[in-house]
Write a structure and sequence with these properties.
Number of helices of chain B: 5
Structural class of chain B: mainly alpha
CATH class of chain A: Mainly Alpha
Oligomer: heterodimer
Helix content of chain B: over 70%
CATH class of chain B: Mainly Alpha
CATH architecture of chain A: Orthogonal Bundle
Number of strands of chain A: 0
Number of helices of chain A: 2
Order of helices and strands of chain B: HHHHH
CATH topology of chain A: Helix Hairpins
CATH architecture of chain B: Orthogonal Bundle
């Protein structure tokens, strides 16, 4: 009899303890769920930033290419124009034209040839300065956000693992509680049997 | 699935209940009501999780297609960019440089051609002087004679006809030089345009890469959501089973206690 009462008291105390453990587990699970949601949001946010950075890099590349191509085309056009003036100079000299006209044509040819050469030589550095370096910066930023997104994904995975662990721990506690309840029932039966 | 659990589990518990015990029946009703509420709540969770899983799989399929499309388009754009870049390099580096070299040679010929008669006269005079001085210095008379003959021949070549021919050659060289310079400029323009087209495809490639990154992120997110839905379903099924077991055991235990009490009485 004494044994049975003692067992019931133990079961009650243990039950309260089990309830406390389950409560604690549920609080922990809630915290893990919140952490997982936050990590998932961070992952999505960083992925979005990575995509934006890649688009920015594409835009910068296009700007650089436009500037480089414009300067190259302008350089080519000026070189062609300079060749035309140079031809006028040569023909003028051959035909004995007016010296002023020849000098004017020569000046035009020289200026255009120099400008053409300058544009052609500046095209590549301008493209690199405006486009390539900016694009590289944006790509580096995209890479950084990709890494952060990957970290956030790991955090989300960890939080989910913690959630599963808490869940399993809660199950174990409930199993223990169930076992105690069964013991309690057995004790009650034995008491009734002894009566 | 939950219907099967409902059909299987409580029937065992109810089979052990003594129909004569009123108190036990009351407890059974309460337990059954609790079981019903819990199972209904679990069933809602399960159906919601199953819907999420189905939706997640459809979304994953769609995103995988998007990802594959983006990667394929990025590869195509990269190929196009490489092709136009290669053409641009040929125009900008090879053709323009060759045209520039041709222009320089033609310009040299044109310049040299104008001075050709004067140059020939100077060479003839030099050879005549060489023949005379060579004889005075004791050079072989045959050699000196040969030099003198060459000097006379060069003198003949530096006549008016040769000057005219050289002038015509200079004109041709001048035209070639201009043509080559125009070709050089046109090749430079073509190279610039082709590099712009190449850059356009490069930009397309980067944008498709961004689309691929976006699709990949959405794919990862969908997988996370799918994992959550699976976890939810697993939890719901487990708790369903546990609730049914617990209630069944409670009912069984109570009914056994009541039966024992009845037998003792």
């Amino acid at each position: 009899m004494t044994q049975a009462i003692s067992s019931a008291a133990f079961a009650s105390l243990a039950g309260e303890f089990a309830v406390l453990v389950v409560d604690h587990e549920s609080v922990q699970a809630e915290s893990a769920a919140r952490e997982r949601d936050a990590a998932r949001e961070a992952f999505l946010s960083d992925a979005q930033k990575q995509v934006e950075a890649l688009h920015d890099a594409a835009n910068a590349t296009m700007q650089g290419a436009l500037i480089g191509a414009s300067m190259t085309i302008a350089g080519g056009a000026l070189q062609m124009s300079a060749a035309s003036f140079q031809y006028e100079v040569s023909m003028g000299k051959a035909h004995g034209d007016c010296a002023t006209a020849i000098a004017s044509n020569q000046l035009n040819a020289t200026v255009r040839a120099d400008l053409g050469e300058m544009f052609a030589k500046l095209a590549e550095p301008s493209k690199a300065l405006v486009g390539d370096s900016t694009a590289a910066r944006f790509q580096a930023e995209a890479k950084r956000h990709e890494t952060l997104a990957e970290q956030a994904k790991w955090q989300a995975d960890d939080a989910r693992a913690a959630l599963d662990k808490d869940d399993k721990r809660g199950d174990k506690t409930l199993d223990v509680l169930q076992g105690m309840h069964q013991d309690d029932n057995s004790s009650a039966k034995s008491i009734i049997g002894r009566i | 699935m939950s219907t099967t659990i409902l059909d299987a589990r409580p029937s065992n518990a109810w089979a052990s209940v003594s129909p004569s015990a009123d108190h036990a029946t009351g407890q059974l009703s309460g337990a059954c009501a609790l079981l019903s509420v819990l199972v209904q709540a679990n069933r809602t969770t399960q159906s919601s999780a199953k819907g999420d899983i189905q939706h997640g799989f459809e979304r994953l399929d769609e995103l995988k297609k998007q990802l594959a499309d983006s990667i394929r388009q990025a590869e195509e754009a990269a190929n196009d960019s490489g092709f136009f870049g290669f053409l641009g390099d040929i125009f900008g580096n090879d053709i323009a440089q060759i045209a520039g070299a041709v222009a320089s040679i033609a310009a040299t010929i044109a310049t040299g051609g104008a001075a050709a008669p004067l140059l020939l006269i100077a060479i003839a005079e030099a050879l005549q002087v060489a023949a005379k001085v060579g004889a005075e210095l004791g050079l072989d008379p045959k050699i000196c004679m040969g030099i003198a003959v060459v000097a006379v021949a060069v003198g003949f070549c530096s006549g008016a006809g040769a000057g005219q021919a050289a002038g015509e050659m200079a004109d041709v060289a001048r035209a070639v030089s201009v043509g080559a310079k125009v070709t050089q400029g046109a090749a430079t323009i073509a190279a610039g345009s082709l590099h712009l087209v190449s850059a356009h495809y490069q930009v397309k490639q980067l944008n498709y890469q961004a689309d691929a990154a976006s699709a990949r992120a959405e794919d990862d997110d969908a997988e996370l959501a799918l994992d959550d839905a699976f976890s939810l379903l697993e939890r719901a099924l487990r708790s369903d089973q546990r609730e049914i077991n617990t209630v069944s055991q409670i009912i069984q235990g109570d009914s056994e206690s009541n039966s024992n009490l009845c037998h003792r009485i």
